[in-house]
Design goal:
Length: 344
């Protein structure tokens, strides 16, 4: 059908390979983390793609490992290295990158060193023998996740999946690990069940999208919102669920698509009803079926760890944006004005 479509559909096969590869590399990863025993973990990305993922990764380390962590755009760290140097002293810096060649990442690492900051780099990329590996104490390279299309889909899902898999092992959380191992099968079933409905959803008369999600999955949901900008070239935003009431609600009207990843609590349900009342096309992504008048519900039909819910939200966004590109007439494989990676 198209390159990006094939990569979206292939992401679950790629996730299986990621789990196998990371399990084999786990002794090296664990040894590095134990040796460094970092006072904090810094996830580094570029632009709204890998930086959005970095936010989810940092939130997970904060919430689940209870270790200080934050996300930083590589360009920010490049320009303001002197400001960040003290904050990142002794950190484990984890850059996440499709190409492993985006110049800002290398510039940032070099600038931090020049500012007198001492740190250790554990990198994840989707290309072999990349430049980023030369800056890394340990480099995890997964070329089967590399997206040939400009817009990242499989790469996004697999980088998120891979970091969450490693964290599940470092935490000793076997329930989370088991769910991550099971998700490729769950995800394939989820797509088979709802893909035709997502195609129909794309045909509705909305012209901008809002994605809502909280806690560890907010970052990957933000990447889901970005898919609408890149793939079908429509405006989009991402907010925390209840936070959307504080200003953004004024723009949620009859030509808005809202995709909300919710845990089905009463405050969330009241919000969904309010957005339906504004005439919006409202979609909920839940574990189990949830009936709210006027809203479309796409349940996974599994009781998921919140981290794993992010993998359901992202594919819903990716495929809806892909089918919307047929409506907007955009070429998602070759979007105008967007390069696969940026070189300064």
């Amino acid at each position: 059908m198209s390159l990006i479509y094939d990569e979206i559909k292939n992401q679950y096969q790629a996730m299986r390979r990621c789990a196998e590869h990371l399990e084999a590399r786990l002794p090296e990863i664990r040894a590095l983390v134990e040796q460094v025993n970092p006072p904090l973990v810094v996830f580094m990305g570029c632009g709204s793609r890998s930086f959005s993922l970095a936010k989810s990764m940092a939130d997970t380390v904060n919430i689940r490992l209870k270790r200080p962590s934050f996300a930083v755009p590589a360009g920010d760290a490049t320009v303001h290295a002197a400001r960040y140097a003290g904050t990142m002293e002794g950190a484990l810096i984890v850059p996440v990158s499709r190409s492993g060649s985006t110049s800002e990442v290398m510039f940032a690492l070099d600038a931090l060193k020049a500012a007198g900051c001492s740190f250790t780099v554990l990198s994840l990329s989707c290309a072999e023998h990349c430049k980023l590996s030369e800056h890394s104490a340990l480099s995890i390279e997964m070329p089967w996740c590399f997206d040939e299309s400009v817009c990242q889909t499989r790469t996004v899902s697999c980088l998120y999946y891979s970091v969450m898999y490693v964290l599940s092992r470092l935490m000793g959380d076997e329930t989370l690990r088991a769910q991550l191992l099971a998700f490729p099968d769950i995800g394939e079933r989820y797509v088979r069940r709802f893909e035709a409905e997502w195609e129909a959803l794309a045909g509705r008369s909305w012209d901008h999208a809002v994605v809502l999600a909280d806690a560890e999955i907010h970052g990957i949901a933000e990447e889901g919102a970005l898919a609408f900008k890149e793939v079908c070239q429509l405006p989009s935003n991402c907010y925390h669920v209840l936070d959307v009431r504080h200003g953004p609600m004024v723009l949620i009207r009859d030509r808005t698509l809202v995709i909300a990843a919710i845990a089905s609590g009463p405050l969330e349900q009241d919000l969904i009803r309010d957005m339906v009342g504004h005439g919006s096309t409202v979609v909920t992504c839940t574990d189990r079926p949830l009936a709210i008048d006027g809203a479309l519900n796409f349940p996974v039909d599994e009781d998921l760890d919140h981290i794993v819910r992010g993998l359901a939200v992202i594919v819903l966004c990716q495929l809806t944006a892909f089918y919307k590109s047929k409506v907007t007439g955009t070429d998602p494989d070759h979007p105008d004005g967007l390069d696969a990676w940026i070189k300064l």
